[in-house]
Amino acid sequence: MTERTVFDPADPLGLDDLLTDDDRAIRATVREWAADRVLPHVAGWYERGELPGARELARELGALGALGMSLTGYGCAGASAVQYGLACLELEAADSGIRSLVSVQGSLAMYAIHRFGSEEQKRRWLPPMAAGETIGCFGLTEPDHGSDPANMRTAARRDGTDWVLDGRKMWITNGSIAGVAVVWAGTEDGIRGFLVPTDTPGFSAPEIHHKLSLRASVTSELVLDGVRLPADAALPEARGLRGPLSCLSHARYGIVWGAMGAARACFETALDYARTREQFGRPIGGFQLTQAKLADMALELHKGILLAHHLGRRMDAGRIRPEQISFGKLNNVREAIDICRTARTVLGANGISLEYPVMRHATNLESVLTYEGTVEMHQLVLGKALTGIDAFR
Ligand code: FAD
Fold first, then answer.
1. Contact 256, 332 (CB under 8 A)
2. Closest approach atom of ligand 1 to CA 211
3. Atom 8 of ligand 1 has which residue's CA nearest to it?
4. Fewest C-beta in 10 Å: which of 153, 204, 273, 331?
5. Active site residues
C-alpha cells in the first residue's frame, strides 16, 4: 500500500489505498478495454438505439475474465467481490448498458446455474458463458408482475418426464442475443428455474424498441408457447422465490459499484468543463455556486465508492446480508442519478448533447433506479429490517 500525502481530486479520500496491486491491475485492464472498445462508439450506439457486435464484445469480455468474474471453477476467473465491483464500476463509467450485459451474464444467468444447477448443467453451460461464447439472460419480470414476482403467470407443467412452459417475460436484458435463458416459472411445487436453450421450439425473444434509457443494451420480451424441455432442464437446487432473489442480490451488489462509475464519468466531465468554460470573464468553476455543486458531487461519489468497498469486503468475508445490499443499491443509484443531473446543469445546454456523456448516463440510470428492485422496494426492505414490520402488502 502507498501512503498518500497529496490531495488528489480524482481520489480525495485516498480510497485507492484500500486496494491491492491485483485490484488495481484488474481495474486498469477493464478501464483500458472500455476506453478502447466502448467509449469511442457508445454515443453513436446510444443514438441509434443498438448494441452492434454484442457477441464479439461478450467474447472480449470473456477473454478479460469479466464474465462470472467472482465465480469459481468452470472457466470462471474466481476474482474477489471487490475486484468484480471495480470491473462493474469501470464498465458503467463507459455505459450502464455494457455493465448490464456483464451483470446479467455473470450475476444473474451464470450465478443461477453455479448456485442452483446440477454438475452436468454447470459443465454444459458455464465454460462457454465464461468465455462469452454463449450469452445468457434471466427472465423473472412479466408484463403484469414486476416488483411482485411471487404472483407470476408463467407456468411449467409436467408432461411425462418433460416440462412444458407457457408464459411471457418482459424487459429481459440480453434476451434476443441469448443462447440460454434462465426462466422462472410457477410449478406445483412453487417457483422453479429452467434452463431454456433459445433455439427450443416455442421460444422467441422479440427485441423491445423505443426505449429512452439503456439504449445501447438489448432488452427483450420472452415468449414461451408450449416450450417442451427435458426433465434435466430444471435447476435442481432452486425452490421458491429464494432462488431468483439470491441471484438478484448478487447482481445488485455489482450495481452498487457500477452506479458510481456512471457518477464518476459525469463528475469528471463537469469538473473539466467547470475549469475551462468561461462566463462573465472567468471559468464557471470559479463561482461559488458551481464549487458547491462540485463539492457535493464529490462527497456523494466518494462516500458511495467507500460504501461499495465496505460491502465488497463483507461479501468477500461471507458476511453480507441482503438488507445491506439494498442499503447500497438504494443509496448509490439514487446519489449517482443526482450527481449526473447536477453535472448536466454544470454543462448548461451542452449537458443535453450526446457529445458529452452526462445526459446518456442520467437517462441510463433511470432504468438502473427501477431494475433489480425499485427505490421503493429497497426502502421497504430496509423499513422492514428497521421496524420488524412488513409493509409490502
Ligand atoms: P411495478 O412493479 O409495476 O412498479 C411500478 C411502481 O410501483 C414502482 O415505482 C414501484 O416501486 C411501485 N410499487 C410497486 N409495489 C409497491 C409497494 N408495495 N409499495 C410501494 N410502491 C410500490 N427484469 C428481469 O427479470 N430480467 C432482466 O434482465 C431485466 N432487465 C431490465 C432492463 C431494463 C432496461 C428495465 C427497465 C427493466 C428490466 N427488468 C428486468 C425489469 C425490472 O426488474 C422491473 O421493471 C422492476 O422490477 C419493476 O417492475 P415493474 O416495471 O413491473 O414496475
1. yes
2. 34
3. 374
4. 153
5. 372
Predicted confidence at residue 3, as pLDDT, reads 55
Q: Which grid coordinates are listed for 208?
A: 423491445
Domain ranges of the chain: 3-130, 136-233, 242-387
Ligand 1 site, CB within 6 A: 104, 138-141, 146-147, 171-173, 214, 219, 367, 370-371, 374, 376-377, 392
Task: Provide the pLDDT confidence category of residue 5 given band limits of 50, 70 and 90.
Answer: confident
> What pLDDT digit, counting tens, does each position of 232-260 carry?
999 999 999 999 999 999 999 999 999 99
For residue 91, the CA-to-ligand 1 centroid distance in Å is: 23
How far is residue 146 from each of residues 186, 204, 239, 272, measured CA to CA in Å? 15, 20, 19, 40
Spatial CB neighbours of 244, under 8 Å, sequence gap ≥ 6: 112, 138, 140, 149, 184, 191, 193, 238
- Name the β-bridge partners of 196: 181
| Residue closest by Cα to atom 36 of ligand 1 | 367
Q: Which amino acid is at 59?
A: R
How many whole angstroms separate alpha carbon 108 and alpha carbon 221?
17
CA–centroid distance, residue 212 to ligand 1 (Å): 16
Q: How far does the centroid of ligand 1 lie from the alpha carbon of residue 374, in Å?
A: 6
Spell out the residues 6+ positions from residue 165 whose beta carbon is closer than 8 angstroms to its own.
154, 155, 156, 183, 185, 194, 196, 202, 224, 226, 227, 229
Which CATH code of 1.20.140.10, 3.30.1460.10, 3.30.420.40, 3.40.190.10 fits the domain covering 242-387? 1.20.140.10
- Class level of CATH domain 3-130: mainly alpha
